[in-house]
Amino acid sequence: MNIKRERAHYLISSAVNELGQQFGYSNLIYWARENGINMDKLDDEIKELAREGLLRIFIDIRCPNCGAHIGSFNCLSEIPKRVTCSDCGKPWIRDEDLENSYELILTTTEEGRYFFRPTYYSRILFKIKRERRIEKSLRQIFERKRQL
Ligand SMILES: [Zn+2]
User: Fold this and answer.
1) 134 within some domain
2) Cα of 92 from ligand 1 centre, angstroms
3) What's the domain range around 21?
């Protein structure tokens, strides 16, 4: 591992701290929106940390009909063209069903769990929360102003 920066430098550390060692990309988008964090920045971090072997990303597919787990894949090319759902028996067809049935899952690797351990609490998190509070109070001021 040749990672040069420490845990506190990554915004994603705060996400791991709040969302857990495994979470969906959709949850991350929601979390980023809630905290006023730029998703492009998080995407860059995810790529970097995946390259360093601290995060793993996989594609999770669920049956759009019954929600049963169809499979987990490391990349798009691994996904079969057609699968029959073992629960409801409906065929899952990649070209038609992929968009409505996949989620990107992020999970910390064994090394990642050590890297993201919350022993030194990120200062960045405090900074974000504080900025968010300011932003919120400003928004309330603006809204009040508009109602006058
Ligand atoms: Zn099914």
Assistant:
1) no
2) 8
3) 9-121
